[in-house]
Design a protein that fits this description.
By secondary structure, the chain is an alpha/beta fold. The chain has helices at 5-29, 56-74, 94-107, 119-132, 147-155, 157-160, 170-187, 205-209, 233-239, 258-266, 282-290, 311-314, 339-348, 355-376, 384-393, 450-456, 465-469, and strands at residues 45-51, 83-89, 112-115, 139-142, 163-165, 193-199, 211-218, 223-230, 243-250, 271-275, 298-301, 323-324, 427-429, 435-437. The chain is globular.
C-alpha cells in the first residue's frame, strides 16, 4: 500500500533531526584542536676556516671563502640546511694549526674544514684527522702544493679519504704551467736564451731535480697503478727549443737577488723565469731587477703578490715590464659565468685576489654541490662518507677559474682528490700599471676557448722592458 505524503514527510523530518543532532553532538564533544607543531629545525652545516689573517694574502683567501659562505647564508643555506662558519688563526704554525683543527672538529663539530697554510700544516692535520675521523666524520680541504697530500690519499685511501687538495697537484702543475710559459717565451717574446731561478723549497723539488715514482691508487671500487713523472725545468725548456744559459736556486727568505740577476745577465740570458711563491720576496726582487744590469731582460714571475694588479704600487712602479699571471683584473677572461662577478665582489670589499683566492671561494661551492647531490638522492648532508663520494664524482659548475669538466676531484689519475692543472694566461705590467694579456692564441697548452682567446689575448701588445722605460 503506497506510503502517504504525510507519513513520508514525518520520516524525513525525523532523519534530518537525527543527522543534525548527531553532527551537533560530534562538534560539541570533539576535543579542541591543539597548537600547530613548530617546523623541525634543521641542524646547521658547519664550515671551519683555518688561516692566518695577519698576512694580507692569507686574509684575502680566508675572506674569499667567507664571501661564498655568506652568499649561501643569504640564499637560504645548502639544500635547505642553514650554514654556519667559524674562524681560527693558525699563525701559520703547525702546532697551532693542529690545536685549532681539533677544536673546530671535536668541540665545535665542523663538517668541513678549509685550511690555508704551508704543506707541513696540511700533512700534520691529515695525521690528526685520521685519528679523529672515525668518531668525528668531516672533510678537510686545502688549497696548496705538496705532492705528499695527494699521494697519501691514493696509497692509503681508507685512512685519508677525508682529505682533498682543492688545487692542482704540483707534479702536474709544475710541468704544464712552465711548458705553457716557455712556449710564450719562445713564440711571443721571441727569445732563445733563458735563465731559470727556482725557490729552494719543498714544493719545487721536482722542478729542480725531477720526480719519478709509481703509486698504487686503491679505493673500495678500484685498484690502479699510476705513474708520476715530473721533469726538471731545465729539461722542459730544452724540449721547447730554448737554451738554458743560467740556473740557480734562490734560498728561502733571501733579500739579496742581485747576484742571481747579474749572473743571468753575464750568461747572456734574454729572459729570466723565476719559480717563486709567497716565500720569495718578489717585491724586493723586482726592485733590484729594475736597477740591475739585467733590467733590459724580460722577467717572468711564477708566483707571489705579482698576481695582484696592486703589485705595481707595491713595487713603486718598478714592475714595469714584468710578466706574470694576474688574477684580479676586473675583465679577467670569463672562464665561467662566475669569474668576473667573484673578482668584482672581492675588489668591492678592498680585498686582493690571487689564484688561491679563486679556489677558496670555489671550494665552498664544491662542498655545496656535493651536499646537494647527496640530499637530492634522499641522503643526509651529515653522511660524510656519502659527501666524500659526491665530491669525487660531481663537478663544481660554479668554479671561477676552471671549466666544469675540469672540476672532478675523483679522476683516477695522478690528480686524485685534486684538480687538473690550471694554465692561466700571462699578463705584462705596462705604463702606469696597466696590465695587458700577452698570451698567444696558438699556444698548444691553452685552456681558454678559442673564441675567448681571440677576444682577450693580445700578444702583439708585448713590449720589452727597455721599450717601456723609454716611454713606449
Amino acid at each position: 500500500m503506497p506510503m502517504s505524503k504525510k507519513v513520508l514527510a514525518a520520516i524525513i523530518v525525523v532523519v534530518v533531526i537525527a543527522v543534525v543532532g548527531g553532527l551537533s553532538y560530534a562538534l560539541i564533544t570533539a576535543p579542541p584542536p591543539g597548537p600547530t607543531p613548530p617546523p623541525v629545525e634543521k641542524k646547521p652545516i658547519k664550515i671551519a676556516l683555518l688561516y692566518n689573517p695577519a698576512i694580507s694574502v692569507l686574509k684575502g683567501q680566508g675572506e674569499a671563502a667567507k664571501v661564498a659562505i655568506e652568499e649561501l647564508q643569504k640564499a637560504g643555506g645548502i639544500a635547505g640546511y642553514p650554514v654556519e662558519y667559524k674562524e681560527w688563526d693558525t699563525q701559520r704554525k703547525v702546532d697551532v694549526a693542529v690545536a685549532a683543527y681539533r677544536e673546530a672538529v671535536v668541540d665545535w663539530g665542523a663538517h668541513f674544514v678549509l685550511l690555508e697554510g704551508v704543506s707541513e700544516e696540511m700533512l700534520a692535520l691529515m695525521e690528526e684527522g685520521a685519528k679523529l675521523y672515525p668518531k668525528y666524520p668531516h672533510i678537510l680541504g686545502y688549497v696548496g702544493m705538496a705532492a705528499e697530500v695527494t699521494i697519501k690519499v691514493m696509497e692509503e685511501y681508507d685512512k685519508y679519504k677525508f682529505a682533498f687538495r682543492l688545487f692542482d697537484a704540483d707534479y702536474t702543475a709544475n710541468v704544464l704551467r712552465p711548458l705553457a710559459i716557455f712556449w710564450e717565451a719562445k713564440n711571443v717574446l721571441k727569445v732563445s736564451k733563458i735563465a731559470i731561478l727556482i725557490e729552494e723549497a719543498a714544493w719545487t723539488l721536482g722542478a729542480r731535480q725531477g720526480l719519478e715514482m709509481t703509486v698504487t691508487l686503491k679505493t673500495p671500487e678500484v685498484t690502479k697503478t699510476i705513474r708520476i713523472s715530473q721533469k726538471p725545468l731545465r729539461e722542459l725548456a730544452r724540449e721547447m727549443g730554448l737554451t738554458v744559459v743560467y740556473e740557480a736556486n734562490i734560498p728561502v727568505g733571501t733579500k739579496e737577488f742581485l747576484p742571481f740577476l747579474e749572473g743571468a745577465k753575464a750568461a747572456g740570458a734574454e729572459y729570466i723565469f723565476v719559480m717563486s711563491s709567497w716565500y720569495t720576496d718578489c717585491i724586493t726582487l723586482v726592485k733590484q731587477w729594475a736597477v740591475s744590469g739585467a733590467r733590459d731582460i724580460y722577467l717572468e714571475l711564477y708566483g707571489g703578490p705579482n698576481h695582484w694588479t696592486v703589485f705595481w704600487n707595491l713595487t713603486g712602479g718598478a714592475a714595469l715590464g714584468v710578466i706574470s699571471g694576474v688574477f684580479d683584473v676586473p675583465d679577467y677572461i670569463p672562464i665561467s659565468p662566475y669569474t668576473q662577478p667573484f673578482i668584482a665582489k672581492m675588489l668591492g670589499r678592498g680585498l686582493r685576489v690571487d689564484m688561491s683566492a679563486h679556489y677558496y671561494y670555489s671550494a665552498v661551492y664544491h662542498f655545496k654541490r656535493a651536499v646537494e647531490y647527496v640530499v637530492e638522492r634522499g641522503g643526509s648532508p651529515f653522511d660524510i662518507d656519502a659527501v666524500i663520494k659526491a665530491l669525487e664524482r660531481v663537478p663544481c659548475e660554479e668554479h671561477t677559474l676552471l671549466p666544469a669538466e675540469m672540476t672532478i676531484l675523483g679522476s683516477l689519475d695522478e690528480n686524485f682528490h685534486s684538480y687538473p692543472a690550471c694554465l692561466p694566461p700571462h699578463y705584462q705590467f705596462q705604463r702606469d700599471g696597466k696590465v695587458v694579456c700577452i698570451s698567444g692564441i696558438e699556444n698548444p697548452f691553452r685552456q681558454v676557448p678559442e673564441e675567448l682567446a681571440r677576444r682577450y689575448f693580445h700578444p702583439e701588445l708585448v713590449k720589452s722592458p727597455a721599450e717601456l722605460r723609454a716611454g713606449g
